[in-house]
């Protein structure tokens, strides 16, 4: 049986737009940091779907597909350190 990315935790880590302008780090316990601000926000992954909600009440969603995160009209690639 194939594990989902939610089970393997492959979505954790730094995701960046191709131009490097927007950086988003997905953290354990459903938290994330985004480089455009210093406010910590929450996310939840269900299957290949991600739902975001920040502390100001903003919410959004996205999808993981083929190792790429599609969110808010942007395309994120996982950064490997």
What descriptive keywords fit this protein?
81 residues; 8 strands; mainly beta
Number of E strands: 8
Number of helices: 1
Mean pLDDT across every amino acid position: 82
Kindly estimate the percentage of residues that lie in beta strands according to DSSP. Answer: over 45%
Give the overall silhouette.
Answer: globular
Low-confidence stretches: none
Protein name: Agrobacterium tumefaciens protein Atu4866
Organism: Mucilaginibacter rubeus
Outline the structure in words.
It comes from Mucilaginibacter rubeus. This is Agrobacterium tumefaciens protein Atu4866. InterPro entries: Atu4866-like_sf, Uncharacterised_Atu4866. It holds the Pfam family Atu4866. The chain has one helix and eight strands. An eight-stranded antiparallel β-barrel has the order 1-2-3-4-5-6-7-8. It has a single domain, classed as Lipocalin, CATH 2.40.128.290. The longest helix has 4 residues, at about 5-10. The protein starts with a helix and ends with a strand. The model has no long low-confidence stretch (mean pLDDT about 80). By secondary structure, it is mainly beta. The chain is globular.
């Amino acid at each position: 049986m194939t594990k989902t990315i939610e089970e393997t935790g492959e979505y954790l880590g730094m995701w960046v737009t191709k131009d490097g302008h927007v950086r988003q780090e997905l953290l354990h316990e459903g938290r994330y940091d985004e480089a455009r601000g210093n406010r910590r926000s929450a996310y939840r992954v269900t299957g290949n779907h991600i739902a975001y909600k920040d502390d100001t009440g903003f919410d959004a969603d996205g999808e993981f597909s083929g190792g790429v995160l599609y969110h808010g009209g942007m395309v994120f690639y996982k950064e490997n350190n």
